[in-house]
């Protein structure tokens, strides 16, 4: 059913008040095909929503919004070491992680508590605590708006990069992701070498942690630092961690020898955007109802009635401040509409 002038405030984790001119919930491939056969897609390029956790509305949406509500989890194949699962794109990502962990299947436990839907995960190539979805992803199934057919894209077709993929570039606007195929391990090796994971495990006297222990530790860390969108509007990390030349790191170290960095491609390093923002004095800043979270400088928040334009204006001030101070350009991770 196509609805008109539908409020989408509850469909974005920033809680921004916006209206869709046309709105449709997609619960089956047949429903998607029906929309495709109509002339709606000709009139307006559709905007696809999942969990609404990585989008910032700066205005009402004049076209068609499709909400991905496809559900289901299936085992496609398995052997004694691993299994290939297909998860429908409308499933909640964190609930999918918990499902895998409960069954003892490793590979995505470090991505616990990342908000959003399964279908959004490959678009963003979500990552955290030393892991990215592209490390387990085998294929993406998607409805091709150009042909009206469901197609399967391989790992290489997805052209993954840091918080990047084919779906954000050449393939943008062409596909409605319907399912994601991931290979999970039955005898996984845990990854605890990133961030505060090891410290949490040591505090709990866990010398030989399993994937459930790692997942629980990451959930604890994230909950201690990040605001719950149900209580305080936000989209998680607002900026990408910048990848800069080694010379830029050396420049920063002249005045800040304590700055942390992480390996990237040859001649480059990755810097923590939160640290850069905090050093510029933005942590806890508030301007009206738009602000920077008091515990995590990488998170911009809506304290109640902020407009998307106000949050973008604040983000641009932060970008300019970091550029002026450190000669580093911050890229917004959130999709702006």
Outline:
With 337 residues, the chain is of the alpha+beta class. The chain has helices spanning 29-37, 40-43, 93-102, 120-124, 197-203, 211-225, 246-253, 273-279, 308-326, and strands at 3-7, 19-26, 47-49, 55-56, 61-68, 73-78, 82-88, 127-128, 131-132, 137-144, 149-154, 175-185, 233-237, 243-245, 262-263, 268-270, 286-287, 290-292, 299-302, 335-336. The protein has 3 domains: 3-68, Uridine Diphospho-n-acetylenolpyruvylglucosamine Reductase, domain 2 (2-Layer Sandwich); 73-185, 2-Layer Sandwich (Uridine Diphospho-n-acetylenolpyruvylglucosamine Reductase, domain 3), CATH 3.30.465; 233-336, Uridine Diphospho-n-acetylenolpyruvylglucosamine Reductase, domain 1 (Alpha-Beta Complex).
Describe what this molecule looks like in 3D:
With 337 residues, this protein is an alpha+beta fold. The chain folds into three domains: 3-68, 2-Layer Sandwich (Uridine Diphospho-n-acetylenolpyruvylglucosamine Reductase, domain 2); 73-185, Uridine Diphospho-n-acetylenolpyruvylglucosamine Reductase, domain 3 (2-Layer Sandwich); 233-336, Uridine Diphospho-n-acetylenolpyruvylglucosamine Reductase, domain 1. The chain has helices at residues 29-37, 40-43, 93-102, 120-124, 197-203, 211-225, 246-253, 273-279, 308-326; strands at residues 3-7, 19-26, 47-49, 55-56, 61-68, 73-78, 82-88, 127-128, 131-132, 137-144, 149-154, 175-185, 233-237, 243-245, 262-263, 268-270, 286-287, 290-292, 299-302, 335-336. The strands form six sheets. It has a five-stranded antiparallel beta sheet. A four-stranded mixed beta sheet has the order 1-2-5-3. The longest helix is centred in the last third of the chain and has 19 residues, at 308-326. 42% of the residues are buried.
């Amino acid at each position: 059913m196509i609805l008109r002038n539908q409020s989408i405030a509850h469909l974005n984790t920033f809680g921004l008040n916006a209206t869709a001119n046309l709105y449709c919930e997609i619960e089956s491939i047949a429903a998607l095909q029906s929309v495709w056969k109509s002339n709606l897609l000709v009139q307006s390029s559709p905007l696809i929503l999942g969990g609404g956790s990585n989008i910032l509305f700066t205005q009402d949406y004049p076209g068609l919004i499709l909400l991905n509500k496809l559900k289901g989890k299936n085992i496609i194949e398995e052997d004694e070491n691993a299994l290939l699962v297909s998860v429908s794109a409308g499933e909640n990502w964190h609930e999918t992680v918990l499902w895998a962990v409960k069954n003892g299947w490793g590979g995505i436990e470090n991505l616990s508590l990342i908000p959003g839907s399964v279908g959004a995960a490959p678009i963003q190539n979500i990552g955290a605590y030393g892991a990215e979805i592209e490390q387990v992803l085998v294929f993406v199934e998607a409805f091709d708006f150009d042909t009206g057919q469901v197609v399967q894209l391989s790992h290489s077709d997805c052209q993954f990069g840091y918080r990047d993929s084919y779906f954000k570039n050449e393939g943008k606007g062409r596909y409605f992701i319907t399912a994601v195929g991931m290979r999970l391990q039955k005898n996984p090796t845990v990854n605890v070498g990133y961030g505060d994971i090891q410290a949490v495990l040591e505090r709990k006297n866990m010398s030989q942690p399993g994937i459930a222990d790692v997942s629980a530790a990451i959930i604890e860390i994230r909950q201690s630092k990040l605001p719950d969108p149900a209580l305080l509007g936000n989209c998680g990390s607002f900026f990408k961690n910048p990848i800069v030349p080694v010379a830029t790191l050396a420049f920063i170290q002249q005045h800040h020898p304590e700055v942390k960095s992480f390996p990237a491609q040859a001649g480059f390093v990755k810097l923590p955007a939160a640290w850069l923002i905090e050093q510029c004095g933005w942590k806890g800043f508030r301007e009206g109802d738009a602000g920077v979270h008091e515990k995590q400088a990488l998170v911009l928040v809506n304290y109640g009635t902020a407009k998307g334009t106000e949050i973008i204006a604040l983000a641009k001030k932060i970008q300019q401040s970091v550029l002026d101070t450190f000669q580093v350009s911050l890229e917004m991770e959130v999709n702006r509409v």
